[in-house]
Amino acid sequence: MVSTAINIGIIGGSGMLGSAIATAILASGNIAPAQVWISNTSGQAPGFALNSSVHITKDNGTLVDACDMVILCVPPAAFPEIHIHAPDKLVMSVMAGVTLDQLGARTGAVRLVRAMSSPAASLALAYSPWIASPEVTSSDRHIVQIILEACGKTDEVFDESQLDHFTAMTGPVPGFVALFAQSMADHAERQGIAPEVADRAVRQLFLAAGTMMAAGAARPADHVREMIDYAGTTAAGLTAMLEADLPKSISDGLLAAADKAKSF
After folding, report:
1. Does residue 165 lie in a domain region?
2. What digits encode the pLDDT tens for the residues 112-136?
3. Is 15 one of the annotated binding-site residues?
4. Are residues 69 and 150 both part of a single domain?
5. Nearest-CA neighbor of 16 among 103, 95, 82?
6. What is the predicted pLDDT for the residue at 1?
7. Burial grade of 208 (CB within 10 A; 0-12, 13-18, 19 or more)
8. 108 marked as binding residue
9. CA geometry: angle at 196 spanning 190 and 200, to 5°?
10. Same domain, 115 and 227
11. Is the pLDDT of residue 5 over 90?
């Protein structure tokens, strides 16, 4: 546990992603509840009602004045409606497609961080890459690291365009992985397997596969090569998928999602 004394405000903190990040921050124990502010249009956050120390407001200006760091968690389409003046604050955005330059122009801040996360943050399972403006200090980086590590795994990157690709790949949890799982469950049902059994089997498969890949040193490509080299039933399936160019279909989908992220 690493405690910090700064106040952190989350604009949009009761939405799906904002509440996930707030939950992660509070669960980590690194930030006291009284140091957390949440703002939204209603001024209410039922998910945090039991924690009376968390500050809830519908006034973004009040939140900005009270906090050292402001996290913007509103949908990208709502960003033009956000009117805050935070020139002396550390401002972090988890909005898809909103650039560092756009953040600075709208907020007046120069210490800017653009990050990507996912609702899996509520379980400390998100992957949250981030990039910082040149004005972000080492102490700023420290607090960003504390917050995003509370959400799961994180890396600082140094090419802003990569954030659009991470938005496509790691933002929509369970998104693309759920599509693959659905395809497998649908296949099982077509083979006469009861829907509830197919569902349970596929859920357990993805839990086991994700856990093994997260815990072990082998990369996904290593697992694929090991199965193909074993030359068993899985090798036959993988070979058929590769011959059908499944990787290209996946890449095309991810590029479409990244292009959409750029369009916000």
Report:
1. no
2. 999 999 999 999 999 999 999 999 9
3. yes
4. yes
5. 95
6. 47
7. exposed
8. no
9. 100
10. no
11. no
Domain holding 37: CATH number?
A: 3.40.50.720
163 marked ligand binding residue: no
The mean pLDDT of 6-14, rounded to a whole number, is 94
Find out whether 7 and 147 touch, Cβ atoms under 8 Å.
no
**Does 237 carry a binding-site annotation?**
no
CA 198 to chain centre: 28
Q: Pick the closest to residue 5 from 26, 34, 28, 27 (CA basis).
A: 34
In which domain, by residue range, is 195 found? 175-262
User: Looking at residue 82, what DSSP letter applies?
Assistant: -
Give tens-digit pLDDT for 59-76: 999 999 999 999 999 999
Q: Is 39 annotated as a binding residue?
A: no
pLDDT in tens, 146-191: 999 999 999 999 999 999 999 888 888 888 999 999 999 999 999 9
Check the annotation: does 228 bind a ligand.
Answer: no
